[in-house]
Design a protein that fits this description.
Elements lengths: L7 E3 L6 E6 L4 H6 L3 H9 L9 E5 L6 E6 L11 H6 L3 E5 L7 H7 L16 E5 L5 H19 L7 H15 L2 E6 H7 L1 H7 L9 E7 L6 E6 L1 E5 L8 H4 L7 H16 L4 E11 L11 E3 L5 E3 L7 H14 L4 E6 L3 H7 L5 E4 L2 H13 L5 E2 L17 E2 L8 H10 L7 E6 L3 E2 L9 E2 L4 H12 L1
Parallel strand pairs: 1-6, 2-4, 2-5, 5-6, 9-11, 9-14, 10-11, 13-17, 14-18, 15-16
Antiparallel strand pairs: 3-4, 7-8, 8-11, 12-13, 15-18, 19-20
Helix pairs in contact: 4-5, 5-10, 6-10, 7-8, 8-11, 10-15, 11-14, 13-15
Length: 460
């Protein structure tokens, strides 16, 4: 992983090239204050002050230059100067006016590369100076957490199966003095029957398991973070078409978010009792696969008619949420790449967010806006509960008809959460289908920083 700590440095007035960030509304005023050589360069580049305009500006000496970026993004945007963090040559930079603030994060993440399977072109660091050195440590942690999500999601299932997620959890627990418990085999089949059923067809070495990390003072409020860890999803016997299976290495994106968020919590030593749960499985096809029509037992005691083996994520989360609730947490957050319906509803950028508490919902939405990690709330609509009815069991996992798929999936999960528990469910895509400044195509964290902001505010 890139050393993000090397990309931000306290500004002690050391030598650095300037970056001029100009809002379109301030263009004429800024231009009028510039020396003739700058106005000449602006004219030569035919810049009009439109957002996205950029140019290298000459200085007084031959090797002296600075960078101009016209940007209409809000000052709180993490991505304000991310394009420059990616494109500028190696060197040290500072803003010509003001402080980078939240843009420190985008500057670092613009330099992220996933190069596990190929050698990239060597690139030296682009260092950004800041007069807010107290913010550097947290910004670096956020960059590292985001990069961890990206790395895990980008890694193909060959090298990121249930065992590898277990290794990640073991390393995380070791770094912070936490306790890791792994449940597998007969204990999993008896105690977490839906997790076992989904993963039972996987090959030797890729068997299903439940990973649990406990950390913090037991006297502090208990918070559970749950992440869907389907390391590859064939769809099971309801086999996905090849086009839909292509990206299913990312179906453990919820687990990646949960691991990264837990790392942030422990590194900051928040005053809470953390319970991290990752049901880690591979939804494979073999003679041992669970079948359409099977009635599955659950840890909670409910029975589930399996109407679609490709709706497996909600099954493993159901058992994990039940386990989380047994220890009476005051808050549960779960992350999952759960439904295609959420992508149809809100697209790839916005996690569809379902919240069982109005104050928590308001906090999450406000935090997402504040830190540039937007969420979009969808309803836990009671009127659709009837869609989960089964003729032979307590409920089905996938209603017929296809209506409100993200909502009915969330309602299924709600059956495994106590009514008086504050709970938020993030149906996140965890993938960028197209690159944006600071956000390359591929795996990405979505909803992570919003959730972290809420936890930090509540438990710091």
């Amino acid at each position: 992983m890139i050393d993000f700590s090397a990309l931000l440095q306290p500004d002690r007035r050391q030598a650095a090239r300037l970056i001029h960030v100009v809002h379109p509304d301030d263009w004429q005023q800024w231009l009028a204050t510039q020396p003739p050589r700058v106005r000449t360069a602006v004219a030569a580049h035919k810049l009009t002050g439109k957002a996205g305009n950029r140019a290298v500006l000459p200085g007084e000496a031959a090797d002296d230059w600075s960078m101009l970026l016209v940007c209409d993004e809000d000052a709180s945007s993490p991505w304000k100067i991310a394009s420059l963090g990616e494109q500028l040559p190696e060197g040290t930079y500072r803003l010509a006016s003001g402080e980078p603030g939240a843009a420190m994060l985008g500057w670092m993440l613009a330099q992220y590369r996933f190069e596990r399977y190929r050698k990239g072109k060597p690139q030296g660091p682009r260092v950004l100076l800041t007069g807010e050195p107290a913010r550097i440590e947290e910004m670096v942690r956020l960059a590292e957490a985001t990069a961890k999500v990206r790395d895990l999601v980008n890694t193909p299932a060959l090298d990121c199966g249930p065992a590898e997620l277990e290794a990640e959890a073991e390393a995380l627990a070791g770094r912070h003095g936490a306790t890791l418990t792994v449940t597998r085999g007969d204990a999993l089949a008896q105690g977490y029957p839906m997790i076992h059923a989904v993963g039972q067809a996987a090959a030797r070495g890729r068997e299903p398991r439940l990973l649990e990390i406990e950390w913090g003072d037991p006297a502090h409020p208990r918070v559970a973070i749950v992440g869907k860890g389907v390391c590859f999803d064939t769809g099971g016997l309801d086999l996905k078409p090849s086009a839909a299976m292509r990206l299913m290495k990312k179906d453990m994106g919820g687990a990646a978010h949960a691991l990264a968020l837990a790392g942030l919590v422990m590194a900051a030593r928040l005053k809470l009792r953390l319970h991290l749960l990752v049901p880690a499985v591979e939804n494979s096809v073999s003679s041992a696969s669970f079948r359409p029509g099977d009635v599955l037992r659950t840890r909670k005691g409910l029975t589930v008619e399996n109407t679609n083996t490709d709706a497996e994520g909600r099954l493993i989360l159901g058992d994990a949420l039940t386990r989380a609730g047994e220890l009476a947490p005051e808050l549960i957050l779960d992350f999952a790449t759960l439904t295609g319906a959420a992508r149809v509803a809100v697209g790839p950028d916005l996690p569809a967010t379902f919240v069982q508490d109005e104050a928590l919902a308001a906090d999450l939405l406000a935090a997402g806006t504040s830190v540039g990690d937007p969420l979009w709330r969808l309803p836990l609509w009671d009127g659709y509960e009837d869609m989960l009815k089964s003729d032979v069991a307590d409920l089905v996992n996938a209603p017929e008809g296809g209506f409100a798929g993200a909502v009915t999936a969330a309602l299924f999960l709600r059956r495994f959460v106590a009514k008086d528990t504050r709970w938020a469910h993030f149906d996140t895509f965890a993938w960028r289908p197209a690159a944006k400044p600071g956000r390359p195509k591929g795996g990405d964290a979505m909803g992570l920083r919003a959730a972290w902001s809420v936890l930090k505010a509540r438990y710091a």
